[in-house]
Write a structure and sequence with these properties.
There is one protein chain. It is built from 14 helices and 20 strands. By secondary structure, the chain is of the alpha/beta class. The chain has two domains: 232 residues, Aldehyde Dehydrogenase, Chain A, domain 1; 183 residues, Aldehyde Dehydrogenase, Chain A, domain 2, CATH 3.40.309. It has a seven-stranded mixed sheet, covered by helices on one side. It has a six-stranded mixed sheet with strand order 5-4-3-6-7-18, with helices on both faces. It has a three-stranded antiparallel sheet with strand order 1-2-20. The radius of gyration is 25 Å and the shape is globular. The N and C termini lie far apart (61 Å). The model has no long low-confidence stretch (mean pLDDT 95).
């Protein structure tokens, strides 16, 4: 034990060292080793699925249907996608050779970083733990996974699940809270992947800078949902409600606030209220499938954000069950407390716009969001938003579902994050792509060598222009 080091810090340091030794042995590099590791995770997902579903209900009150759809199924889809495409991703990629490199060939190849740290959040504690781990393993890395302490039942199942698949020097889970997070961030990793809040993301980035460790940050922000007067209002209402109700709004890409044209605002309100009753019944808090806030602190934070606001529907909660009724807030000011932070709950503030200039002024009041949603049947409006509004990713005439496509990278921009993952993007995130020129020996052009001469200069100027 090093001087001043706690037992926990010693254990974590030794775990990192063991993983680095294992990685340097080359045991993770082959296609067969990576595919075998992915198959082990697929086996474990099936074996531990009942325990994961039960743990998700214990931690977040998620129904089995929602848990399977938004956590298990999406993890399986990512896993299967990576397994199908892994061989192609690992191949060398040849690029057109420049005349200056005659005779030879140029190519790139992906190599793993080494030992990576994945720090996961509590809101989707299966999906957001395992998807980056799957990408990191596909890229050939050793992985230490740190689940959130706010979802302890899921963390315990994942710890058992990973231990059943891998030796700790290959993939390991470190459970715990702030002490474990601090000890992990004191170690030197080859890559850090963090999903969580902006405040903690800044700490991760600061710690990583000591070792010049590359980082992916998946953060959040206030993701807007824009509904113009040409939208299909009934369908928009259903899809907005779906996106806001999923995990009781505790989703990093949930519609955070609504910007609607006043001509259809009240029609949209009525349609959303109808959809809420269809999905959850007359009393949403009595619905056994409706999730709760992760803890008392988070419940009180969201309830306090609603104080002084005009609730069209909802606006109340149950402190015993930690549930908050789906809420629509009208006539919200940009200066209201609820517009100053990400809500992360089933509350939807509503603003209005009449012109594109007004819409842009509202959007530019906030940092670049992780997601943006637009409901319109106007092609010109669609193109205008895509051209003028920066955001991580999003949907036109839907919400949330862009996350389900492994063929597209997912990530933020600016204050909502840096880097991306899912599918090929995840493989590349956890890989360093080496650029290589291979020269042949049958000829060696003399122009680049001393002594220089006018004829050499003429050839160079003719060829390299």
């Amino acid at each position: 034990m090093e001087q001043g080091e706690t037992r926990k810090e010693k254990q974590i340091r030794e775990l990192v060292c063991a993983q680095r030794r294992y990685f340097l042995s080359g045991a993770t590099l082959s296609y067969e080793a990576r595919l075998d590791a992915l198959r082990r995770i697929r086996w474990a997902l099936c074996k531990y699925e009942p325990q994961l579903l039960h743990a998700l209900y214990q931690d977040l009150g998620k129904s089995p249907s929602e848990s399977y759809m938004s956590e298990i199924a999406m993890t399986k889809a990512e896993l299967n996608y990576c397994m199908r495409h892994l061989a192609g991703w690992m191949r060398r990629e040849h690029v057109r050779n420049e005349v200056s490199n005659f005779s030879g060939k140029s190519f790139t190849m992906a190599e793993p970083y080494g030992v990576v740290l994945v720090m996961a959040p509590w809101n989707y504690p299966v999906l957001l733990c395992l998807e980056p781990v799957i990408n990191a393993i596909a890229a050939g890395n050793c992985v230490i996974l740190k689940p959130s302490a706010y979802a302890p039942h899921v963390a315990a199942v994942i710890e058992n699940m990973i231990a059943a698949c891998f030796a700790p020097e290959r993939v390991a889970v470190v459970c715990g809270g702030r002490e474990e997070n601090t000890a992990l961030l004191e170690q030197r990793f080859d890559y850090i992947f963090f999903t969580g809040s902006v405040a903690v993301g800044k700490i991760v980035l600061e710690k990583a800078a000591r070792y010049l460790t590359p980082v992916t940050l998946e953060l959040g922000g206030k993701s807007p949902c824009i509904v113009d007067k040409t939208a299909d209002v009934p369908r928009a209402a259903r899809r907005i409600v779906f996106g806001k109700l999923l995990n009781a709004g505790q989703t990093c890409v949930a519609p955070d606030y609504l910007i609607v044209h006043p001509d259809i605002k009240y029609e949209l309100f009525r349609a959303m209220e109808q959809e809420l009753k269809k999905m959850l019944g007359e009393e949403p808090l009595a619905c056994g499938e409706y999730p709760h806030m992760v803890n008392k602190k988070h419940y009180l934070r969201v309830m306090n954000l609603m104080k002084g606001q005009l609730a069209v529907t909802g606006g109340y909660g149950n402190p015993e069950t930690l549930q908050i009724a789906p809420t629509i807030l009208d006539e919200v000011s940009l200066d209201a407390p609820i517009m100053k932070e990400e809500i992360f709950g089933p509350v939807l503030p509503v603003l209005t716009f009449t012109t594109r200039e007004e819409l842009l002024a509202i959007l530019r009041h906030f940092e670049k969001p992780l997601a943006c949603y637009l409901f319109t049947r106007d092609r010109a409006m669609e193109q205008w938003v895509l051209r003028h509004v920066p955001f991580g990713g999003g949907c036109i005439n839907d919400t949330i579902v862009h996350l389900a496509t492994s063929g597209m990278g997912f990530g933020g921009v600016g204050a909502s994050g840096m880097g991306s993952y899912h599918g090929r993007a995840g493989f590349e995130t956890f890989s360093h792509r080496k650029s290589i020129v291979k020269k042949y020996n049958w000829i060696d052009l003399p122009m680049r060598y001393h002594p220089y001469a006018d004829w050499k200069d003429a050839v160079i100027r003719r060829v390299m222009r």
